[in-house]
Structure formats: structure tokens, C-alpha cells
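TL;DR need C-alpha cells for one chain.
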Amino acid sequence: MPKLISATYHPNIEVAEFICEDGRHLLRSGGTLPWRINNPGDLTARMVNGLPAPKKARGYVGFATTRSGRTFLIFPDEDAGRAELKANLKRMHGERTIPEAIPAYAPKHENNTGKYIDDLLRTSGIPAIRKINECTGAEIEKIVDSIATIEGFHARPETRKETWVAVSRINATDGSQPLPDAEIILQRENGEERLKSDATGRFPPVIHPADRSTVAVKVIGPKAKEPVQIGSVGGETGKDFNLLAKFRKWKGVAGSEKINSSTMANEKSIRYVVQPGDNLSKIAKLYRTSTAAIKANNNLDNDRIYPGEVLLISGISKKSPSATAPSATKKSLSTAPALSAKNSRALNSPPPAPLLGQGVSDSVRSKEGVGKILALIHPIPGRAPWMAIAIAEAKLRYGQREEVIEKEIDYHVEIGDGSRSLSNMAWCAAFANWCLSKSGYPVTNTGFRDRRATLGRAHGFYEMDEKEKIRNPLFAELDKPIYGAIAVATYRGGHGYHVGFAYGKEGPGNLILLGGNQDDKIKFSPFNMSLLQTLETYGKDGRKIKKTIKHSKFLRYFVPVSYFRQAQRDLAEPGLDQLDVDDLNKLIGIPPREKGKVHKTKTN
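>> reply
TL;DR here they are.
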């Protein structure tokens, strides 16, 4: 079975919903609760202030709160549930016998404890005087089998149902910012359903009908006040469907659709975020223009472009594209606006609205070009949409040190991690989470005790609590880096001390990270990406020998769970570009590295 990476539970219909690594959803219904959530021991989650906060549990992918108000752990499969049940028995009840353990494991107010003990002793065959830690591996398996039977894991098999479904995502935007509380109507064969968008413009995910029929997407027309169909979803493949509101009219734009000639003819100009592997010829062909026109519009003096760079593309006209008048946009990694008149190196014009359907998710700033980001489009298919935010911010700050940056923006305050001042606290994680949140990805785990502080810590991308090692369910780990991956620099002992976004490679062993708090700036820096290193030493006989050991520092890679499907596709691509760190930093106003100087970061 494909790997299941997250899960939730719908108590009103008694369905467990799992999200697969390939983006599909698995619905488990019928049977019993332990079976639906792969929890043979019916293990509950530890609660803190009314929220689930497991301390020692491992392997779970979500929580199931039932109509009775109890919250259970959801596991990706039966083996994971059994493994945690064994660990729980040894950890919590290892020094107890079965008659001593069950009153705590299955308390009287929820179970017939006496019958539970009798049934467990009888079916497992374990002597009543034997402590659980004294049991052999085979005897522990018998205890687990018996508990699973008593808890009803194997009951009602004839009612069990597993359904794999495709799911589409629908978002509402006006072209420059998300639209909360927008209403749509989903028209199915058996009726209709009304949905409203949340604060980020997102609607609840739409599960495709099992019979592959179409679900019509409708909105209320501004004039007739009657439902008007603007698109549809359905079939075997999910997609992103964006509702674009222009001049009080709605238009449906599928995230995977390419721009056609009629669209281009009506566009004065659009912004395109350069993707890994792009070149000017490829972009010109896609937009039915010429490389000369793109270079003229962006003041490019050569054909070299970089991933994450934002290019201004002019619409098609009767005139030759090459005759298009150059814009005021200067060569840069971003079309971020100017900081102020005193920083003439930054760009001078405010960014035009992003175009749906091309993976653009960029910021709209105030007229002065400073201060907080005002609004963002929800991310749509494309490569790591948060990178456009990070690069725009790097260009906007143009090599400024943290003590200058914090006068205009404090990323700690922006994301609410409880800290203040970039100068006094490490801010690499705060910057990364800020970029992710501004591109529409959730970064806060509302169900965890240390959710605020974790936002400001590098290791927070893979664990919610440094001591308890609670896995962060918002992010999935990758085996190797891709463009835009969240790269956590980690000590050999396992503690994450810095984080940045994977951008490219420099030489055979270094990964280029774009991040905050790198030499107290937002910049590009090389980090070792090899887990192992080979050293030459001398043996007892005086001969040289090679010895392979673990590096004292290495990188781990993560992406948001909702981006995991795209990440799998990215892993199949040729890989990251070979780039020069000094060339990249020069474009954002940072001078070349001094020979022999190692970049520094504050750790967290």
C-alpha cells in the first residue's frame, strides 16, 4: 500500500480520511473505530488544555476525536498501531502484571475492568503473576493479539469499506489577494452543497464521486442572483481550481491549464516565476513571444536567468514582440518594489498582479514598498511558490543586516513565536515560516502545547518538542533535496540548528540555501549536504588508510504535507542547478565572500 502521511477523522459520518503520499485520499468506514484508525489497542492521545499533546507516542499520523469527546491516535497501518501498543505496554506498565496494568490501561469508568482482565489472561495464556517486562517477544505478541480482539479491532469485518478517491482543491481570489467568505455551490447528481472559503480563500477539499461523474462548480451571478456554472471537477485526477473575481464577475481557472492566445491577447503584462530548468527560449515559446522581447522588458544583458526570478512578460499585440517598449524593471531575482529613495539599487515600480495558473504566489505590498505584506494568492500548481516570497524579500532587503531589517519587520512578531528582536534571537526558522505562511501554507499546529515556540526553532520542522520528539504532522521528510525544500542543518546528535530553502548546488558536496540569519542577513550560503566524509589517517604500520565517518553536521529535507505530491514529481526531475553563490548574492546586493571566511548563523 502507498505510504499514508496524514489523517483526520469525521465523527459525524464515522469515516477516517487518510492522505497518501501521491495525493490521493483513502476513506475507511464501517468496521469498528480501532480498525478505521489502525489503532488495535484503542490508544488515546494525552490531552493538555483540551488539545492532543502525546509525549512518548510514535508513528501516529493524526487524531480522531469521537462524538463522545475522546481523542484517539490514528496510525497509517496496523503494524504501526501494534508497534506503539507494544511500546506503550512496556513504557507505562512494564513493571506491572496484567491484573495490575489493566485498571490503568482500561479504567473502570470506561470498561468492565474485571472482565477485561479475565479475558486477557485467558486468551493470551500469560500467568497472572508475570510482569509485562518479563514476557518474551512472542508472549508480548499474544498480549497484543488479545487486546486487539477485546477492543474489537477484528469485529464486523463484513461492514468494512476502503475507498480511494481523488480530491480537488478550490480557492477564491481577486487576482492579487485571497477572498474569504466567498460562496460556491457544488452541484452533484444527488443534490447540491454550499461551501464558504476560509480566511486564506480556501474551500474544503472536494472529493470526486466514485462513479467518476462531474461535480459542477457554481457561483451566484451578480445580476440575476441565480447560480451560474463556471467550471467543474471530477474524474480520476484531482486538480487545483481557482475562482478569479474580476469586475464583479467570476471566472474559473484550472491550475493545470496553460495560457492560450486569447488570454495573452487580453493581458497587458504578467509575471512569470522562473522554474528550475527554464531558459528564455522555453518561456518565450510558452507565452508566444520572443527571447528578445523578454530581455528588453526585463533589461537583461544576457540569456542567463535564475530559478525564482520574476520576469515581466508582455501580452501579444499586432506589433512584433521585439518592438515592445522596455519597462523600468531592472535585472534582479525579484520584482520587489523599492525600499526607499535612498536605496536606488532596488526596483522602482510596484509589482503587477500575479497570473493564475503559472505557479505564481507573490506578495502585494504597500504603495511605499515597505512594511507588512498585504495579501497573497493561495498557492497553485508550480514549483515551491514560497520561493518567490523569499527571493522578493531578499531583494527588498538588499543585503541589509538584521539590526536594520528589524526596524521595518520582525519575523518573530509576524509569525507570533513569542520572541522579539532579530538581533538577539536566531531568526532563520521565523523567516522560513513567514515565507511559507505568506504563500498560503499552514505553519501553526493548533493541537500542540509548544506550537508557538516551535515556529522560531529550526528543529520545529520535524518535531514539535525537542525533549519529547513529537513529530510535526505539517511537514513530510524527503530523502534528498529539491528546489524549495526546507533544509534543516542538523548536528550529528540530531538537533537542528539552522534552516533555509534549498536553491541549487555549488560543487559536488555543497547545497546553496537561501535563508535568513545567514551572516545576519537574508542571503545565499553554501552548506555541506553529505552525510558521510572520508578521512585519510595512518595505520599502526605507518601506511595511509581511508576512514569513512559521519559528518558532524548534515542536512535534512522537508516540504509541507500538501506539497508532497509535487515534491515526488520534483524528485524525478534532473535535479538542482549548479550555481555560484557569489553570483547569486551579487544580484541581491551582497559582495563576494572573503577567501577562507566561513558564513555564520545564530543557532536555535
